[in-house]
Amino acid sequence: MNTKTFLIPALFCLALQAQAQVTVEQAWARATVAQQKAGGAFLRLKSVQDSRLVEVRAALAGHVEMHEMAMVGDTMKMREVEAVDLPAGQWVEFKPGGYHLMLMDLKRPIQAGEKLPLTLVIEGRDKKRRTVEVQAEARGLGQ
Q1: Whole-angstrom Cα distance, residue 101 to residue 88?
Q2: Does the pLDDT of residue 143 top 80, yes or no?
């Protein structure tokens, strides 16, 4: 057997395995109106290993913040968080009323139906960071 014949498929499988460490589902963003400078994005994440979402980037936004909404007494409070834990094998949801992504300093409005590229930065227990590219579909308010 030729070593190249074995080595190339093996390396390809390792690359796929590294990319498959985090599963992303239902990525979407809220469409915005003219002059609106911030928007929201939502998704579901599941990691094979304990890890953390430490950063999110979007070309359409000046910066992206991770926020958490929670009831404090009788008041819903929103606060920025530096990272979100992704426990191994468990879905973590970013949804209205909970964790969510705030797209700040929008360069233009987000149009319903467009695909918004997001880059998720995931940090493993080994402190190595990997990126996951996501396409979030923009939805209108009633969708």
Answers
A1: 21
A2: no
